[in-house]
Amino acid sequence: MKNTDQLHIIFQKYLNQSCSPDEMTQLLDYFAMSESDEDTLGQLVEEVLNRQETSAVDVETGQRLKICLENIMENRVMPSKRKVWLKPIYVKWTVAATLFMAACTIFYFTQIFKPNTVGHNAVTQASLKPGTDKAQLTLADGSVIDLEQAANGKLENKEGIAVTKTADGKLVYDTQQEVPVGGEVTYNTVVTPRGGQYKIILSDGSSIWLNAASSLRFPTSFVGAERRVELSGEGYFEIKKNARQPFVVASGEQEVTVLGTHFNINAYNDNNLIKTTLLEGAVKISKGKQSYVLAPGQQASLDNSHNVISIANNVDIDAVVAWKHGRFSFDETNIKDVMQQVTRWYDVDVLYKGDFSNVELTGNISRGEDAEQVLKLLKGTKQIDFIINGRTITVIPYK
Q1: 313 in helix, strand or coil?
Q2: pLDDT, tens only, 153-201
């Protein structure tokens, strides 16, 4: 919508509650995806400020609308070639701007945007919900506990080891008495499905967050010269320091050895790369005769296809651990890597019709959004589109 007069006309129709669905679509597209039109929006809402009924918006409503606007701006996704920084919105028209943007968003997503209906198995918007805290715990005797369904409290209390599920979605191991040297070591395994995540506090006090479609095998109590666990998928680790008993994470043929530090490992089986990113402290990455010591801000990538470890400096730590904080974060990320994250978090399958090798995206989206909302934001880059059929998403070229 390049014609300013047309924009003013449609905006006035919005104020009079006489916008058609097509006109409301134009307004949302113009402001939600625009890169440099804050001044235009400012001029429009100045008109709103002159209207007594809008200026008298109550504080509670104004705050609620302000949060809505912040979410819209935070969730904007842009093609990587058009990366921009958002300009601040002037305080004098914040309430009016939030009123406009919130109303557009509510109207658009409740009245205009409906899921693509392909075949008879098309789903409604509410069907593709985001992941939750869920996992399965396999005990040493082979019995399996569904952590999503299990009641809070003690799950097991054997041989001095208490296993507790907390109300806030954590699995806590507590060593109530020391396991004697040479005593039998028992192992448990936590597996998160697609659409699941879970936090585990080990018997030494170390904390591990498991991303979707991941697993962690670990001893219920640590004895001997090292603390060793096995990871498949992705995990974020905050390890309690113990210089006499190093902590070792085995992922396939790679081992990460630490004394006490914070780091992230991405080791999904469907990727050729195992990426280990250090947030603080130091870790040693090793495979066979190769070994490297990482400093904070560095990332080691093990290429399993070529048996080579490469080191990257000054990586975007916030983007690496965004999943732990409830966000998707893309920085010139190929669409297939983006959709891998969508597949795991929403428990969907993804197909492709077309060549998307040059499609890269940059942006941040809340992992609390339904999948349809995420796809809508990705589609807004005008590089790709989607067809939803049941729990299958097909990526197609944008038209």
Answers
A1: coil
A2: 999 887 778 999 998 889 999 987 666 566 678 999 999 999 999 999 9
Any residues with CB less than 8 A from the CB of 165 and at least 6 apart, and which? 147, 150, 151, 152, 153, 155, 171, 172
List phi, psi (to 5°) of 79. -60, 145
Side chain identity, residue 282:
A
Q: Alpha-carbon distance 201 to 294, whole Å?
A: 25
Residue 186: phi, psi to the nearest 5?
Answer: -105, 150
Please report, as a single letter, which amino acid is at residue 304. Answer: N
How far is the C-alpha of 210 from the C-alpha of 237, rounded, in Å? 9
Helical pair 94-107 and 4-15, crossing angle rounded to 10 deg: 80
Residues contacting residue 133 through CB under 8 Å, at least 6 positions apart:
147, 148, 169, 196, 197, 198, 199
In degrees, rounded to 5, the angle at the alpha carbon of residue 316 between the alpha carbons of residues 314 and 321 is: 130
Q: Are 398 and 385 in contact (CB under 8 A)?
A: yes
According to DSSP, the residues that pair with 157 across neighbouring strands are 162
**Digit-coded pLDDT (tens) for 253-285:** 999 999 889 999 999 998 889 999 999 999 999
Look-up: residue for tokens 């008495």? Answer: 177
Is the separation of the CB atoms in 323 and 344 below 8 Å? no
Q: Is the pTM of this model over 0.85?
A: no
Tokens of 272: 């050729």
- Residue type for 174, please? D
Residue type, 273: L
